[in-house]
Amino acid sequence: MSTQNEYIGSAKVLALIPKRKDFTDEAFHDYYRHPHGTLGNPISTMRRYVQSHQIHTDYLDNSQSKYGAVAELWFDSLNDASTFREHPIMVDHVIDDEPNFVDLDNLQFLLTKEDVVYSNPKAGTGLSAADMLFSPENRPISTKLLHFIGKEHTEWISDEDESLGLRIGALRHVRCIPTADVLDENAAFIGVRELWWPTRTAFQKGVEADKEAFEKLIKKTEGCHILLAQAERWR
After folding, report:
1. What InterPro entries does UniProt report for this protein, alphabetically (predicted)?
2. Ordered structural domains, the chain, with CATH
3. pLDDT tens digits for range 39-96
4. Whether the Cβ atoms of residue 82 and residue 181 lie closer than 8 Å to each other
5. 139-197 pLDDT, tens per residue?
6. 7-36 residue pLDDT tens
């Protein structure tokens, strides 16, 4: 298992996107996909792009809908990531489109590096052949839990993280660690935990199988934000 100081992958930006109050959930999600996603997808320095659309689950409280979506953008370097809003596509199209569906006063950004706890479960864990072959990297839609860690929880990384994720059936587990380059000085979070399942049903079955592990993994809730999402990979 990787440690807090072992970073795997390129620089990653996460944007927590609150919907404008006059938008329905459906209208917000559709607008984010198109035209907004269509306008932003051509950014030349962006290597990967995922839109994570919030979906309701009874395992979380009502605060889960505070942000309607999370944008996930990967770049080759910290410089590309920290300056992506200066890209011509952003300046000419995307930034001007944001007020059309986003509550800009509560929009937040985090600049991070990925610490991969595990990319897929090891052989011999009793998983089906399909589960062993699953990867969110090569499919357009998956289900994921995003746990944004509040600033007061400085010791949020644990040696138990890997085992807890496996106990609830998560097939990929990543911790996003903010870098020294601050994209948003007012960001309320110091890290992000991400866990993936192939489907929403798989998530539900995983949590039901070991609610104790689920509660332990997300026990830090004060000052945090947790949501379940349909992750839609654009590239």
Report:
1. Dimeric_a/b-barrel, EthD_dom
2. 11-233 (3.30.70.100)
3. 999 999 999 999 999 999 999 999 999 999 999 999 999 999 999 999 999 999 999 9
4. yes
5. 999 999 999 999 888 889 999 999 999 999 999 999 999 886 655 666 789 899 999 99
6. 444 899 999 999 999 999 999 999 999 999
If you write DSSP's letter for every residue of 119-186 in order, what string do you get? SSPPTTS---HHHHH--GGGSSEEEEEEEEEETT-TT---TTHHHHHHHTT-SEEEEEEE-SS-S-TT
Task: Note whether 162 and 192 are within 8 A (CB).
Answer: no
> How deeply is 12 buried, as exposed, middle or buried, from its count of CB atoms within 10 A (0-12, 13-18, 19+)?
buried
Sequence length of the chain is 235
Residue indicated by tokens 């945090």: 224
Answer whether 102's CB lies under 8 Å from 22's CB. Answer: no
